[in-house]
């Protein structure tokens, strides 16, 4: 029975891995956008983390996840004489790679971390049934990679501690490599291994050579990571120059994130946000079941002795010190905490668990900003069709994006015949957006090479849409819809205060979608 259930959940994970939802700009701009521009010469816009004088993001852990598969696709298409691969192939290849990492490494680690053979299968199925596994873990997040590194860090700690007969330098090397990659990937990584790592202290007292070996390997891998980062950010860099003036991205990251004024630009949250909201959003009924189990004395003692629970809860507590708190920061805690839940035999829990993950899976895995990627992939075709219909001869077009996440520019691909200028107006007020369009749209005649991408739920645009605007309207601009994608919901467009709950839901969900309009003047 459990094999059929696991296979079904595996197919569900494949479906969500290939669904183009967009959970956070970092899944594109802190990975694929960076390497696609360098490898394929696709248009790309690097985020500030990579362009500041003190860069805070390391490319060392990103190289095998993005550079290697992209370079292999580049090599294959070069060999067959087809130039660069289409961006949609690259996009889905990266998603497929993240699915494989989740399927192989995460499930394997969870299976090893549960000591009881009786609970292993049920735990793997429970983790595989979480919408977090379906969505976040199959997207190109550094947090998804951190989840795998934390899980395997705990596995290696357990193997080293339990291996009392002989020492294994291979285990020491792998553990040191995981630790270095984890730190250079995200500075939150040590928080998950800090207290579980205390198990190694008695082992190091018995075998000081083990500590020396791990430290030596860690220093070696750290030097390699620093040299790769320094070479990436500084051209014509040599090893001697790295030793003289290294760029240590984790250190820069710590210095940046310990400054509250810096965090304020990304949003400040109450210190209890992780415990009161974020874990509940990620775990749903499983979090409630855990809180109930912690209220009983015997289970409380069991949780204290549970290394997986200790890792997740202690890390959540440490991360709560920082005022900027997003749910994805706790992704490594999700499989660890789910492996501690023993309420899966309850029919009530099972029913609520299925409903919660089905709802959140479709919301986050299909509809959440789900039109941004398909729209960007289709943009060149939309523009070429429209310019041909209007007889426009210009090779340059400007596309304004409003009320969406920042569009990944690398998805436009490379094309020498058409130049597309992407302008991100993300959260600017409607009148300011219109003012920008007014200053950009060329005068009459009707032909225009200006486009607007915006949610169809934005009622502010209704009076400007050509199909609904009256002939006597005084509006100077007209919007002509060229294309739309239905599976798109903008959760940042919720306005319960002004519109009320029911009207907001009817607008955001009932009028869901992302549209592409040609912007022209009315030319009366």
UniProtKB/TrEMBL annotation:
Biological process, per Gene Ontology: GPI anchor biosynthetic process
Matching InterPro entries? GPI_mannosylTrfase (IPR005599)
Which molecular-function annotations from GO does this UniProt entry contain? alpha-1,2-mannosyltransferase activity
**Pathway linked to the protein:** Glycolipid biosynthesis; glycosylphosphatidylinositol-anchor biosynthesis
Which subcellular locations apply to this protein?
Endoplasmic reticulum membrane
Show which residues constitute the signal peptide: 1-17
The source's domain of life comes to: Eukaryota
Documented EC number(s): 2.4.1.-
Q: Which family does it belong to?
A: Belongs to the glycosyltransferase 22 family. PIGZ subfamily.
Official protein name in the record = Mannosyltransferase
Species for this entry: Penicillium argentinense
């Amino acid at each position: 029975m459990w094999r059929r259930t696991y296979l079904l959940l595996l197919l569900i994970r494949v479906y969500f891995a290939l669904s183009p939802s967009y959970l956070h700009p970092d899944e594109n701009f802190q990975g694929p956008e960076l390497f696609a521009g360098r490898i394929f010469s696709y248009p790309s816009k690097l985020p500030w983390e990579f362009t500041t004088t003190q860069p805070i993001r390391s490319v060392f852990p990103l190289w095998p996840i993005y550079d290697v598969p992209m370079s292999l696709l580049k090599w294959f298409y070069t060999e067959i004489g087809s130039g660069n691969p289409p961006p949609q192939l690259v996009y889905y290849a990266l998603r497929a790679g993240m699915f494989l990492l989740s399927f192989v490494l995460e499930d394997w680690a969870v299976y090893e971390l549960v000591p009881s053979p009786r609970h292993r299968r049920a735990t793997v199925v429970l983790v595989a049934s979480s919408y977090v596994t379906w969505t976040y873990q199959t997207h190109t997040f550094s947090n998804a990679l951190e989840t795998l590194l934390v899980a395997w860090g705990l596995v290696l700690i357990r193997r080293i501690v339990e291996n009392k007969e002989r020492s294994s330098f291979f285990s020491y090397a792998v553990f040191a490599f995981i630790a270095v990659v984890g730190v250079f990937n995200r500075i939150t990584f040590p928080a998950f291994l800090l207290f579980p790592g205390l198990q190694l202290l008695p082992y190091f007292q018995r075998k000081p050579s083990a500590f020396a070996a791990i430290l030596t390997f860690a220093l070696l891998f750290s030097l390699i990571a620093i040299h790769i980062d320094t070479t990436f950010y500084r051209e014509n860099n040599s090893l001697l120059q790295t030793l003289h003036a290294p760029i240590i991205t984790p250190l820069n990251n710590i210095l940046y994130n310990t400054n509250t004024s810096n965090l304020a630009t990304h949003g400040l949250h109450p210190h209890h946000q992780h415990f009161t909201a974020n874990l509940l959003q990620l775990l749903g009924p499983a979090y409630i079941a855990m809180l109930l189990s912690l209220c009983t004395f015997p289970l409380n003692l069991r949780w204290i002795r549970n290394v997986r629970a200790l890792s997740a809860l202690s890390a959540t507590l440490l991360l709560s010190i920082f005022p900027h708190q997003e749910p994805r920061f706790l992704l490594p805690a999700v499989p660890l905490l789910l492996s501690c839940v023993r309420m899966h035999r309850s029919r009530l829990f099972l029913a609520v668990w299925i409903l919660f993950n089905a709802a959140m899976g479709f919301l986050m895995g299909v509809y959440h900003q789900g039109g941004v990627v398909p729209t960007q992939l289709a943009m060149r075709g939309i523009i070429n069709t429209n310019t041909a219909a209007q007889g426009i001869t210009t090779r340059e077009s400007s596309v304004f994006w409003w009320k969406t996440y920042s569009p990944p520019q690398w998805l436009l691909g490379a094309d020498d015949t058409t130049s597309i200028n992407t302008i991100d107006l993300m959260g600017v007020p409607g009148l300011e957006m219109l003012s920008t369009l007014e200053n950009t749209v060329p005068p009459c005649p009707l032909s225009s090479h200006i486009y607007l991408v915006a949610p169809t739920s934005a009622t502010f645009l209704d009076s400007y849409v050509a199909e609904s605007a009256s002939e006597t309207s005084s509006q100077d601009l007209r919007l002509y819809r060229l294309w739309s994608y239905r599976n798109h919901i903008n959760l940042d467009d919720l306005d319960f205060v002004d519109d009320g709950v029911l009207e907001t839901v009817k607008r955001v969900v009932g009028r869901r979608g992302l549209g592409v309009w040609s912007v022209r003047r009315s030319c009366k």
